[in-house]
Amino acid sequence: MSTQTDGLDLLGPDMRGLYIGGAWREAEGGDRLDVIDPADGSVLTDVADASVGDAVDALDAAVAAQESWARTPPRERGEILRTAFGLITDRADQFAHLMSLEMGKTVAEARGEVSYGAEFFRWYAEEAVRIHGRWMQAPAGGSRLLTIKKPVGPCLFITPWNFPLAMGTRKIGPAIAAGCTMVVKPASQTPLTMLALAGVLTEAGLPDGVLNVVTTSHTGELSQTLQADDRLRKVSFTGSTGVGRVLVRQSADQLQRLSMELGGNAPFIVFEDADIDAAVDGAMVAKMRNMGEACTAANRFLVHSSVAQEFGDKLGERMGGLSLGRGQDEGVDVGPLIDEKAVESVSQLVTDAVHDGARVVVGGSVPDGPGYFYPPTVLLDVPSDSEINVQEIFGPVAPITTFETEDEAVRQANDTEYGLSSYVYTRDLARTIRVAESLDFGMVGFNTGLVSNPAAPFGGVKASGFGREGGFEGIEEYLETTYVALPAG
Ligand code: NAP
């Protein structure tokens, strides 16, 4: 594949439109929505700005396709996913450039997302043929109990801007495998990758109407209208906890099935017995993946007081050595944040932490423009109640807070409304088991800075939401169970 691509070559002439019922078309009224380059604030291109009426057309198309799609042999559904996996992999370079362009992450980082994101299609190609119910004899004898798995029905998927490909494939993959049709609404800031993905799935043979993509700025009205429609049976959302709560409320009248992948506030605990160099390596991954703009990002570094200075100095040295710039440029390690609001919010959290008594090891001030950049920053001596330890930072800042005992570390770690991912560095096996059982998080990584894996159940507890994506568990979110009672004969 060409390395001269800017990724926009993935989008054919009509593919900045709406994809409804297997056709590309303009929005009703011809409205358009600008896509901004976060590296300099300029307009990259534009896409169709769907009206609520357009979104209803997309749901009509999904509903019309549902019955025949549900009857498609599982192998056929799996083969479409497997073909799409191959096409994305062949075009990894183009996808990586496109994502870098609209979202800001470096091309190297985006390549990682392409392989992670595509893997959901391969995994669910394999799961499509393993959907089955069960048969058993009733405990009292006599009747037989049978269960049948059926697709939930038409779904609405709403995805965020931080992982424009992977947050789509991990919903679309299991939905296709299970036999569901769908309307996808990507984030307004990063619509291009999803449009390119629709192109790939069409090429892979997905029947018309199974996947519909609407880009829009009328996001709230769209979700309200579609969720009020009794034909929509499921909503899967990845994004902020605030919006998640709105969607949960909106689901009440039609009692839609829900999967909510929401915000996080991951603790990264370093015990006194940890391999500090390994912990710094892990911290670089857990903190700097996606410039810190990840729900799984290490948000609070809880470090035993006896090793905090060493950990902080070493992390500061590594973070300070990273170069900031446009994600598509050679030698750049850290791209821009998504927009100006993101820079202001990160900057305010750092200012407040310093006011609360934190010491800046490296970084800490916004560079001159253009673009929405914030430098990798390490803070030591951050009080545990400083706002930076309470809120999701969503930027390249590592605040370090100390603890004295294991109990205190676990208590501090759990002291958050969130419960998505957590990270622990220790060489003590007994402690590993104790801490794994005590942390109130959907995911715990020991001696690693990366927990995401398409074969594992990704998801959170508490204000981080519910439902799981990936693994064997992920397809269950798209299946209903029918129980059939049979006489013994
Ligand atoms: P966001 O504001 O919640 O936006 C996410 C998506 O929701 C976008 O497509 C957005 O559309 C849409 N949206 C906004 N208001 C809506 C409404 N009233 N009804 C329906 N959809 C609505 O979140 P974000 O700032 O883009 O993303 C960052 C958040 O996502 C963080 O909290 C992060 O932790 C979380 N996240 C979670 C996971 C996970 O798996 N748990 C993964 C990645 C990110 P517009 O773009 O049109 O506003």
Strand content: 15-25%
Report helical residue fraction: 25-40%
User: How many β-strand runs?
Assistant: 20
> Any idea what the CATH architecture of the largest domain is?
3-Layer(aba) Sandwich
Question: Overall mean pLDDT score?
Answer: 97
Low-confidence stretches: none
The total count of helices amounts to 14
Radius of gyration using CA atoms only:
23 Å
Shape: globular
CATH class of the largest domain: Alpha Beta
C-alpha termini separation:
62 Å
What structural category characterises the helix and strand content?
alpha/beta
CATH superfamily of the largest domain: Aldehyde Dehydrogenase, Chain A, domain 1
What are the distinct ligands in this entry? NADP nicotinamide-adenine-dinucleotide phosphate
Strand order of the largest sheet: 14-15-16-13-12-17-18
Write the layout of secondary structure elements.
Layout: E1 18-20, E2 23-25, E3 32-36, E4 43-48, H1 52-71, H2 74-90, H3 92-103, H4 107-127, E5 135-137, E6 144-151, E7 155-158, H5 166-178, E8 182-185, H6 192-203, E9 211-213, H7 219-227, E10 234-238, H8 241-250, E11 257-261, E12 266-270, H9 276-288, E13 298-304, H10 308-320, H11 340-355, E14 359-362, E15 377-380, E16 397-403, H12 406-414, E17 421-425, H13 429-438, E18 443-446, E19 465-466, H14 473-476, E20 479-486
